[in-house]
Each structure stands twice: as C-alpha cells, then as structure tokens.
UniProtKB/TrEMBL annotation:
It is a multi-pass membrane protein. Its main location: membrane. This is Carbohydrate ABC transporter permease. InterPro entries: BP-dep_ABC_trans_perm (IPR050901), MetI-like (IPR000515), MetI-like_sf (IPR035906). Belongs to the binding-protein-dependent transport system permease family. Residues 70-262 form the ABC transmembrane type-1 domain. It comes from the Bacteria. The keyword Membrane applies. Keywords: Cell membrane, Membrane, Transmembrane, Transmembrane helix, Transport.
Amino acid sequence: MRTSTPARVGQYAALLAYLVFLAFPFLWLISTAFKPPQELGSLHPTWIPENPTLDNFRQAFDEQPLLRAALNSLLAALGAAVIAVLIATPMAYVMARRRGRLARAATGWVVISQAFPFVLVIIPLFLVLKNLRLINSVPGLVMVYVVWSLPFALWMLAGYVRAVPAELEEAAAVDGAGRLRTLVSVTAPLLAPGIVATALFAFITAWNEFFFALVLLKTPEKQTLPVILTHFIGAEGVADLGPLAAAAFLATLPSLVVFALIQRRITGGMLAGAVKS
C-alpha cells in the first residue's frame, strides 16, 4: 500500500523532531565547550560562540587527569567488550540451537536480569571484589562490566544465531565436523556482524558507565572519565561549566567515532543474516 502524502509529511516531521531532540544536548555541549567565561554568564546565550576559544580545553586538562582517566575507561571498555563476546558467543549458540526447559529457563533469566537495578547488586559485587582484593582496580571494574553486560550480549547473539540456517551446520556435520569445529568455521564467520554489534554495545555501555566506577574506584589515578567529570563540580554544587563541557565533549567522541566507523557493517550484516540460505 502506498503511503499518502500527508502521512509521509507527518512521518518526516516526526523524524525531524526526534533528531532535533537527540541532537540538541550535544550541539549545546559543543557550543558551551568553545565559549569564553563572558559568554557563558551572558543573559542572552547564543548557539554560535562570538569569540570561540580553546581555553576551556586547556583548563580541563590542567585541572584533572583526563588522559589517565581516558586510558582507564578505554582499558575497562575494551576488556569488558572482548571478554563478554568470548563468553557470550558459545553460550548464545547453545541457547539458540538447544530446545528444552533449560534453554527456556536461561532465556527467561537473561530477560529478568535486565530488570535488576544497580543498587540491588552493588553490595554483593563489592563484597566479592573485596574478598578478591580487586577493589579500586581496573580489572575488578572489568569483571563487573562483563557480568552486567553479559545477559544482554547473550540475548543479542542468540538472535543472530537463530538467523543462521541450521542446514549449513547439518551440512558441516555430514562432512564430519564436530560441534566446536562447526561453531568456529561455519557459524562464527556468519555471526561476525552480530559479534561486532554486541562488542559495540558492551564497549559503549562500559565507556559511559558511572555508578559502578564511582563506588568501586577510590583514587583519582584509577578513576574513569565519567567519574572524573564530577570533579568539575565544586563542593557547593557550582559547576565549572566551560571546562566541564570541554571534558564532556571529549569523553563523548570515542563512542560516536566507533559507532560511525562500523554502523554500516552492523546494518548490512543484520539484513544479510536474514536472507542467507
């Protein structure tokens, strides 16, 4: 059925409004990052800085250890993404291919676990990491991120496994390949777009995470970027707006760049996985 012209106009208008809604905070963040103090305190703010400056960026790096925090965030995010994918891929294969009560129970647990609030699990996680002597350490934070992102990673990858025709695996079994060989040589290459999408999800989740890092990391040299950003807010709740905006802008860039580089592969792989035969 062809969509009428008024309906199409309404759809495009709704899409445009949604894009504006999403883009407004980021654009205002960029504008604030390049404004001098005089413009930040103006009663008539403007979108485009009249006298753009890089002083906010210099001040942000002088006041806080942003490079060290960025390295901590990168190590935590990459570690969580790699480990979560390595664990989730074979587990998702079993969940998708095995039919039975155990598989259904595992799927149900994956869905239910996403409803748990952070506050409910932080105390048990803190006690476990304390016993392992991993409090205030990036490896301990990686463990927490893996545990937290693993259920959704399983759910995502299981959907990609179901999109791979079982006939391909049956053909590999006829040729003498075992389960492990079939998973590595036949299924895994077809799951590449799904693995990339899952790794991206785990990376961005860990890169932007704040609550666990705030509780588990105590010393500034171990803290991640989201936690360091809070240091630009004074004891009385007054924010150093210019340097804060500059640091927040720099902290947002990596996840945007990563997504922009691989989003075509993710989209193309999702479409291709549905039509393979």
